[in-house]
Specification:
By secondary structure, the protein is an alpha/beta fold. It is built from five helices and five strands. β2, α3 and β3 form a beta-alpha-beta unit. It is globular and about 40 Å long.
């Protein structure tokens, strides 16, 4: 009986880890609700973001960043949001990144150490890349640490 209970507990934990709740997708930060131009990111992005946009912050040589870019491509395919890449790395890594992710999204390069320093000053626990900013009409709606599926993103759009 004890072995069966332990097995069921492990099965529950493993199953729960593969189906995150919406809250597990986002990072809670005081940047949410602010105009992007008034945040640390305003210094790294030069354009306005009217409508629905996702700004994905990546390191070009990072495998997790490749996966996040491919996952967000599903939102673009369903016309749920425009995707922009804010990336760091060498030109060779950037070229490989674009090839491997089949992405032709607008891209802006940033200096990792500079961004890290500015982010840590505002929010010491801010996650490393990949993370994504959901922006609606220039306002940060959420910071994704796990990229939402189209279904989850549609639900979030309706709620917020």
């Amino acid at each position: 009986m004890m072995l069966r209970t332990a097995f069921l507990f492990v099965l529950f934990v493993v199953t729960a880890s593969f189906s995150p709740a919406d809250g597990d997708l986002t990072y809670k930060t005081n940047l949410v609700g602010k105009n992007i131009s008034e945040t640390v990111f305003g210094g790294f992005t030069a354009e306005e973001f009217p409508g629905e946009h996702i700004v994905l912050v990546v390191a070009y040589g990072c495998g997790h960043c490749f996966d996040a870019t491919i996952e967000l491509g599903k939102l673009k395919k369903e016309n749920l949001a425009q995707i922009h890449i804010l990336g760091t790395g060498t030109e060779a890594e950037k070229k490989d990144f674009r090839k491997e992710t089949s992405s032709d999204y607008p891209t802006t390069d940033y200096n990792f150490e500079t961004m890290k320093e500015k982010l840590k000053a505002v929010d010491p626990g801010f996650p490393p890349p990949p993370f994504a900013l959901w922006i609606k009409d220039n306002v940060i709606k959420a910071v994704f640490v796990k990229m939402p599926s189209p279904e989850v993103f549609k639900k979030m759009q309706k709620e917020g």
